[in-house]
């Protein structure tokens, strides 16, 4: 008998173990909240994605039912289930409304992929975006474990494709940054092409970089990648704002 765990982004040491215990103890709860008024909806995603909470299916049904012109997506999430996150990304992408993403705290793991669905992505001051490889578990024979490894490799390529689609660069470049687990400060996310602006400031480059170097993540169990290993999207970064995604939105508007 084979027992499989759906791929998710990697659990991290004692901090993640404590988080797991907390989730089990508190039981099911919503990880998002939607408020709609005057043709504009605010959607807060302020928790782990997809585990012991409202499903991505419920999220999709509620978002698709919104008759609004603009969706303000507010993100503060450490990530979670890969497939739930991809479903959320595609739900936002397919909605005819303009999607304006604001990172209020952290958009880590699959939450960073959700952010890529935005027509605009704004980083709050002092916020972070993190990308890394997906993880999964399997109990079974050697073939089952090899199959899971293959699945994870394919999912990693899919994730890298989301980043490349928005920011430019190649899938291989983004895979390299995912492999070492890369954290971006607010301005660094803008510089890499993953975001468009830092909230409340026109130029926070020096301050953001200084803040990033001073921010010690070791207590959280995360590896901290050298900034030099982040891909340089070059001049194409600003022009490669997910042409395919915008085409789909325009098609939905016409339909």
Characteristic terms for this protein:
255 residues; 2-enoyl-CoA Hydratase, Chain A, domain 1; 8-stranded mixed sheet; 9 helices; 41% helix
Give a written overview of the molecule:
The chain is an alpha/beta fold and 255 residues long. It has a single domain, classed as 2-enoyl-CoA Hydratase, Chain A, domain 1 (Alpha-Beta Complex). Helices cover 41% and strands 23% of the residues. The strands form 2 sheets. Strands 2, 3, 4, 5, 6, 7, 9 and 10 form an 8-stranded mixed β-sheet that branches. Strands 1-8 form a two-stranded antiparallel sheet. Strand 4 (70-77), helix 3 and strand 5 form a beta-alpha-beta unit. The chain is globular and about 55 Å long. Mean pLDDT is 78; it is low at 1-5, 9-16, 203-246 and 248-253.
CATH hierarchy class name: Alpha Beta
Based on CA inertia axes, which overall geometry fits?
globular
Q: What amount of the residues lies in strands?
A: 15-25%
Number of domains in the coordinates? Answer: 1
Instruction: Kindly provide the radius of gyration, computed on alpha-carbon positions and rounded to a whole number of angstroms.
Output: 18 Å
Spell out the CATH superfamily. Answer: 2-enoyl-CoA Hydratase, Chain A, domain 1
CATH architecture: Alpha-Beta Complex
Give unreliable regions as ranges.
1-5, 9-16, 203-246, 248-253
Number of strands: 10
The CATH topology assignment is 2-enoyl-CoA Hydratase, Chain A, domain 1
Largest sheet: 8 strands, mixed
By DSSP (H or I, 4+ residues per run), the number of helices equals 9
Return the average pLDDT rounded to an integer.
Answer: 78
Distance between the termini: 47 Å
Helical residues, percent: 40-55%
SSE sequence, one letter per element = EHEEHEHEHEEEHHEHEHH
* Structural class by secondary-structure content: alpha/beta
């Amino acid at each position: 008998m084979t027992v499989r765990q759906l791929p998710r982004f990697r659990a991290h040491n004692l901090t993640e173990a404590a988080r797991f215990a907390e989730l089990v103890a508190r039981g099911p709860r919503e990880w998002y909240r939607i408020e709609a008024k005057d043709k504009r909806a605010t959607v807060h995603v302020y928790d782990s994605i997809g585990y012991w909470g409202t499903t991505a299916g419920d999220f999709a049904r509620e978002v698709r039912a919104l008759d609004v012109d603009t969706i303000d997506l507010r993100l503060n999430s450490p990530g979670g289930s890969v497939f739930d996150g991809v479903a959320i990304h595609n739900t936002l992408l397919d909605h005819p409304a303009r999607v304006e993403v604001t990172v209020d705290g952290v958009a880590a793991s699959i939450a960073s992929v959700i952010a890529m669905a935005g027509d605009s992505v704004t980083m709050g001051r002092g916020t972070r975006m993190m990308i890394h490889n997906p993880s999964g578990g399997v109990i079974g024979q050697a073939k089952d474990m090899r199959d899971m490894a293959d699945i994870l490799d394919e999912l990693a390529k899919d994730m890298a494709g989301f980043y490349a689609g928005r920011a430019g660069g190649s899938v291989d470049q983004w895979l390299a940054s995912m492999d070492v687990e890369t954290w971006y400060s607010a301005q660094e996310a803008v510089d890499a092409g993953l975001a468009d602006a830092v909230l409340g400031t026109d130029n926070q480059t020096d301050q953001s970089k200084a803040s990033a170097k001073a921010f010690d993540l070791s207590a959280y169990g995360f590896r901290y990648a050298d900034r030099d290993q982040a891909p340089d999207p070059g001049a194409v970064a600003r022009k490669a704002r997910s042409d395919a995604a915008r085409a789909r939105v325009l098609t939905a508007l016409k339909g």
